[in-house]
Structures are given as structure tokens and as C-alpha cells.
């Protein structure tokens, strides 16, 4: 089979409709999670081209905050696939970002997922699902979902996935902040707040209300069920997120929640028209640096450009 001379893969951002954080495992520092992910149509594109040496460039939203060396998750993903496939060689990696950096929307994870899928396609590695999943999980807790897309339940570190039975299309408005939040710092802040309260942390479980609402495609009930245990920690580190949530609530959003580890705040709207109203109100209030509308569920990491055949 001839090899393509370049492969571009598109990977979506995610929002956690529910994120329940269980106890911290002292051995690994990771927390047991129960989460429902939804991919939304806000994307990064990653292109891989055979080259004499590995290299990486980044352009687009927040590009100056992304490493361009071998620590980049996309670079690490390509190397991980190369280890599994004899016919691999160095690649030039080009990332075009639209997902905010350190925004709690799995931007780096999307780049890793896209590079993983692109490397597999470029080299014709045909990795099986279990190997792809294992590589993805090693790269980061959100990476397996970035590969899969759609709407899915995540347990363990958030990397053990089962697609969710979900109907309907969801209209989201995202309020971005120009100051990112570090994921480990937000988890550590939650641990601190819980210890201060002497809280006993239960094993995390997804709410049946949310699963029933998704099954029925009932966006009002989904809006009511949005929940994120990391939200109070994110607000504790960035108190103005509470104001952002307030603005969306005043517009009658079906629900509002900090996305993942923040600081992006996600609002669920009834329809496109209400999404536009919420976006205008957020922009006018000045609480957010940037506001974007998107719909979910979106697809997982997928090839959008196979390049010309050699
Ligand atoms: C907040 C979420 O985005 C929700 O989907 C994820 O849990 C974070 O996923 P991620 O950014 O891919 O996370 P990783 O890169 O694997 O981990 C970054 C850090 O987040 C914390 N972390 C992450 C996942 C998890 N289940 N427990 C944790 O405590 C750990 O301190 C870890 O060192
Ligand atoms: N492609 C990438 N490879 C490696 N690091 C990245 C990449 N993109 C961003 N980063 C770095 O990783 C950190 C987290 O960025 P990222 O955009 O993944 O955060 P996030 O969306 O909050 O992640 P998550 O929602 O998965 O917790 C930032 O400090 C950023 O510089």
C-alpha cells in the first residue's frame, strides 16, 4: 500500500457534564473519578509529515503557551506509536490550536489523541483498540476520551470508557479566561478544602438522573444535572468564575458548570437563539476574555486529510 505524504487529524474539545471526584490514591497522586464526557465541535488539527528529524510547530489560539519540544504530548504520542511499529520514522508535527490552552477542555489531550491517530494512519500501523487505548491512557487521563469522542462515561482515572446512551444535540456557550488553571493544582486545592472540612470522601458514582436525561435527550434535565466537584476548587483559585456562572444563570441558561479543572465555564442553552443571547450577555458583562458557541456531541479524533498518495 502506498503511504500518504501527510496526514491531518482533527480532535475535539470536551466538557464534563458530571465530574465526581473520589479519594486520592496516595501511591499515584491520582483521584478515582466518575465522569460523563461530551466532545464539542471546537477543534485542534494535527498534521504529521515524514521528515529527516522530529520537529514541532504550533499556531492558533494560545500557541505561545504550548511547548514545542519532545515534552509536547503530540510528540510523545507519535514516539509511542513509533515504538509499536517497525516502519515508523521521524515526523514534522504541525498543531493548529483552537481549543484554549489550560482551559479544562482537554486541549493537550486532543493534540495527543490527534497525533496518535495520525501516526497510526501515516505509518499504516493499524494498532488494535486495546493498544491504542493503552498508549492514550499513558499519555494522560483525558486522552482516551479524546480518541473516542461522542458522549461517554469515564471511571478509574477517567480513562476507562463506556459510550453513553445519549440522544439529542446540545447547544453550549463557553466563557474562556485568559489566565489558565493547572489541573494538578486544582485537584490539590480540592484535597485541601476537603481536609479543612474533615470530609469523608465517598467512592464516586454517576447520577442516574443524568444518565436518564441523556437517554431521553431531555436537555432541561441535563442542564439541571450538570455537576463538577472540581468547581469549588477552581473558584477558590479564580474567584471571578463565580461571577461568570452568575451571568449565565441570569440569562436563564439550562445549566452552568466549570469545565473539567477550569477556568472555562460551560453553559447549556435551550437552542441556538438562547446560546446567542447568553454569548452576548457574557461578552457585554466583561466577565470572560472570549466567548464561543459550540454543539455536542462531536466525533473523536479522525483523519480529515489523507494527503496525496505517493
Ligand atoms: C480534570 C479532567 O480534565 C477531567 O476530565 C481530568 O481529570 C484531567 O485529565 P488530564 O489533564 O489528562 O490529566 P493528567 O495529565 O493525566 O493528570 C494531570 C494531573 O491531574 C491530577 N489528576 C488527573 C486525573 C485524575 N483522575 N486524578 C488526578 O488527580 C493529577 O495531579 C495528575 O498529575
Ligand atoms: N500539545 C501539548 N503538549 C504538551 N503540553 C501541552 C500541549 N498543549 C498544552 N500543553 C501544556 O499542558 C498544560 C495544560 O494544557 P491543556 O491545554 O492540555 O490543559 P487543559 O485543557 O486544562 O487539560 P485537561 O482539560 O485535560 O485537564 C499547559 O501548561 C500547556 O502549556
Q: Would you give an account of this structure?
A:
The structure is a single chain. This protein is α+β, with helices and mostly antiparallel strands. It is built from 10 helices and 12 strands. It has helices at residues 73-84, 107-123, 129-139, 143-148, 183-197, 208-216, 219-225, 231-237, 241-250, 272-285; strands at residues 7-24, 31-50, 55-60, 91-97, 151-155, 160-163, 170-176, 227-228, 255-258, 265-269, 290-296, 302-305. The strands form 2 sheets. Strands 1, 2, 3, 4, 5, 6, 8 and 12 form an 8-stranded mixed beta sheet that branches. Helix 1 (73-84) runs antiparallel to helix 3, helix 2 packs antiparallel against helix 3 (129-139) and helix 6 packs antiparallel against helix 7. The termini are close together. The model has no long low-confidence stretch (mean pLDDT 95). Residues 16, 19, 29-31, 33, 35, 106, 109, 140-142, 157-158, 183-184, 187, 260-261 line the site of 4-diphosphocytidyl-2-C-methyl-D-erythritol.
